[in-house]
Write a structure and sequence with these properties.
The complex is a heterodimer of chains A (385) and B (62). With 385 residues, chain A is α+β, with helices and mostly antiparallel strands. In chain A, 44% of the residues lie in helices and 8% in strands. In chain A, the strands form 3 sheets. Chain A has a 5-stranded mixed sheet with strand order 1-2-7-4-3. In chain A, strands 5-6 form a two-stranded antiparallel ribbon. In chain A, strand 5 and strand 6 form a beta hairpin. In chain A, helix 5 (112-129) runs antiparallel to helix 7 (142-152) and helix 9 (175-194) crosses helix 11. The longest helix of chain A has 20 residues, at 175-194. Chain B is α+β, with helices and mostly antiparallel strands and 62 residues long. Chain B is 24% helix and 23% strand. Chain B has 2 helices and 4 strands, in the order E-H-E-E-H-E. Chain B has helices at 15-19, 43-52; strands at residues 2-5, 24-26, 32-34, 58-61. In chain B, a hairpin with a 5-residue loop joins strand 2 (24-26) and strand 3 (32-34). The chains are: A alpha+beta (385), B alpha+beta (62). Chain A binds chain B through residues 52-53, 93, 96-97, 100-101, 103-106, 330-331, 336-339, 341, 345-346, 349, and chain B through 11-15, 17-19, 26, 28-30, 48, 51-52, 54-56.
């Protein structure tokens, strides 16, 4: 019987043991989806990259045969909405280009002092409050939240609301829950659009530009605002929390990082590879029959590129289950690959590379604990709470 | 080694400008601008940039 996919992690550092058969033999395996039906899971790094760049695979989530991996994706089928991650070329390229100038490396680097100040502020507050500190609520969640607000031009005062709504959207257990969360966010963002409530930032640039000229309609603006507001939140917060725990649990690796601060650059990529938190983001549907080294994906079949499993391919990353802060791992697939690769790669390198701003703090003695069962694992969004 | 960067194919991921800033820049729209077709002493960085480019816009011929 085919392996059920996806399954929750039992350990944040390793793919579920039930995936072991998928990591052996052929580079692609048919898996069972939770609603019944099957799809292909790609588990070899080379093939994953080839397929993520293959135009015969569609990202259109409204396609009736698109693989449904979790209840929240059913909502896409019931109430389709045009969204960047669900578009194919050439439409996708046209929309991506409207956003991209705001994510240009130069632009993001100019934000660095601002981001450093945010990091410093929450560290100082945590230190001033004294022990014990809850890393998740005192640091992991507010840092990405405030950075995203500044990037987009959304009022930070509203962060409690949209943090909660984002979490509802990502962790929805039913299609109805996910639709309700979408409506909540629609109402909030719609309000900002109607009263021109965006501060300086990406969303105001879109409003004054493509929205004003009619290239984007209100629905497009809502959809893209929601994507940008939600996509970076849970992911970055989970990376910060799990990244800290990963290092605390590996004192030898933490010691390397402390002794050789320049290792931070490779350590960040290794954390992204090792934790692969957005491990089911690479969902596609075949538009044509695709022959692959003796296996055939038939037109209409679902294809899932599992970042987590591919990032543990020994051919691409020797001794893949070992965490090594010195490992050159930039070629990992944690941000995806191909035209749908995460827009925010230049942003992600910043908050994770702020070596200077944590000087002093990194020398503090740390006693820490997690409550058993607190490191939760879901189909998406793996992080301590 | 020769380096090429196809501005039509580029999706502005920024990977090349992050990896080999001596060879690549992004213009104001985020699209790749090739600074030197001959990588000179930056062959290794050019190879890495080509390997990481998610759209296949950056290519090298040896």
């Amino acid at each position: 019987m085919a392996v059920l996919y996806p399954q929750s992690r039992t350990c944040p550092y390793h793919p579920p043991a039930a995936y072991d058969p998928l990591r052996e033999g052929a580079p692609m395996h048919r898996v069972r989806l939770y609603q019944g039906g099957t799809a292909w899971v790609v588990t070899r790094y080379d093939l994953a990259r080839r397929l993520l760049a293959d135009r015969r695979l569609s990202s259109d989530r409204t396609n009736p045969r698109f693989p449904v991996m979790a209840p929240r994706f059913e909502a896409f089928k019931r109430f389709p909405r045009r969204t960047l991650i669900g578009m194919d070329e050439p439409e996708h390229g046209r929309y991506r280009r409207m956003l991209i100038s705001e994510f240009a490396v130069r632009r993001i680097r100019a934000m660095r002092p601002d981001i450093e100040a945010v990091v410093r502020r929450f560290l100082d507050e945590m230190l001033a409050a004294g022990p014990p500190a809850d890393l998740v609520s005192a640091f992991s969640l507010p840092v990405p939240s405030m950075v995203i607000c500044r990037l987009l031009g959304v009022p930070y005062d509203d962060h409690d609301f949209f943090q909660a709504a984002s979490r509802h959207l990502v962790h929805a257990r039913t299609a109805d829950e996910s639709l309700a969360a979408r409506e909540e966010l629609d109402g909030y963002i719609g309000g900002l659009i109607d009263r021109k409530g965006f501060g300086p930032g990406l969303l105001r640039t879109l409003m004054d530009g493509p929205f004003a000229t009619g290239e984007m309609d209100r629905e497009d603006l809502l959809s893209v605002s929601m994507l940008l507001l939600v996509a970076g939140h849970e992911t970055t917060a989970s990376m910060i929390s799990l990244g800290v725990i990963t290092l605390l649990e590996r004192p030898d690796q933490l010691a390397v990082l402390r002794a050789e601060p320049e290792t931070m650059v490779t350590a960040v990529e290794e954390l992204l590879r090792f934790l692969s938190i957005a491990d089911i983001a690479g969902m596609r549907c075949a538009k044509a029959d695709i022959e692959l080294d003796g296996q055939t994906v038939a037109a209409g079949e679902g294809v899932i590129v599992s970042n987590f499993i591919n990032n543990r391919d020994a051919d691409a990353f020797p001794d893949p289950d070992t965490f090594d802060v010195r490992r050159p791992a930039r070629h990992h697939l944690a941000f995806g690959y191909g035209v749908h690769q995460c827009l925010a790669v230049p942003v992600e390198e910043l908050p994770l590379r702020l070596g200077d701003s944590i000087q002093g703090v990194d020398r503090l003695p740390i006693t820490w604990w997690t409550t058993q069962g607190e490191v939760r694992s879901r189909a998406r969004g793996h992080g301590p709470r | 080694m020769r380096v090429t960067a196809d501005r039509e194919v580029c999706i502005s991921a920024g990977t090349c400008a992050l990896t080999a800033p001596e060879l690549f820049e992004q213009d104001d729209d985020g699209i790749v601008t090739l600074l030197h077709a001959d990588p000179g002493s930056h062959e290794e960085a050019a190879r890495e940039a080509a390997g990481l480019c998610p759209s296949g816009a950056v290519q090298i011929t040896e």
